[in-house]
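Technical note accompanying the year-one report. For the benefit of new consortium partners, we illustrate the data format agreed upon in the data management plan: each record pairs a sequence with a structure-token string. No post-processing was applied to the example shown here.
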Amino acid sequence: MSVISGDRREHRAAKREARSGAGPTVAGIEPGVNPGATAKFGLFGEVLTIGLMMTVVALGVVTLPIALAAGIRHLRRFVAAEDSRAGLFWDDVRAGILPSLVVGVAAALIAGVLTLDVVLAGSGALPGGEVIAVVGWAGLLVLAVAILMAAGAWSPQQGWRAAVREVPAAIRADAAGAAYIAAAAVFTGVVTWALAPLFIAGIGCAALAVVAVPARRRRGVHRTE
């Protein structure tokens, strides 16, 4: 009896490992996806590590888009249990930093104008300041979501022009996912405002959100088929 119970326990344990994507396959059990995400503490550590690396690259401000793109690609490799050496992150940065400057400069100029509108609206110097402030904050949020989604679509082969063009269609295809990414952008802004060094964790979490949102959508599609 104890032998049978032991076999059952081993079989259940094997099934859990197979479904997680971390263990060997078991007959009749479909292996899980994203095995790199099964080690929760390991994933958290990787988010902080890549957040620090992204922060270093983003210190130039206009280099924020390539920092996000390289970080998102790194986390995508990590959760898929693919080669996720830090050197590949820096390879992506080197490959995309010069083309990304056009996106970075344009984003910085737009963000600067919107921030100036918010500041002037708060000072009372403009008529209808409350409305202008709301429009300014909304514009900043839309800009943040667009940058995150474009960074998620970027690859050295595709380039930035194609990545930016994909953003409107991606938002229409998954408005709820865009809302999740907007929440991640707000989270990053709030924690950075509360304590500047938390930007490292915030930007890492934002990059992870860009990786996780499409996976959530694919799982939902799979369940309905």
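Partners are asked to follow this layout when depositing records. Residues 77 and 193 are 30 Å apart (CA to CA).
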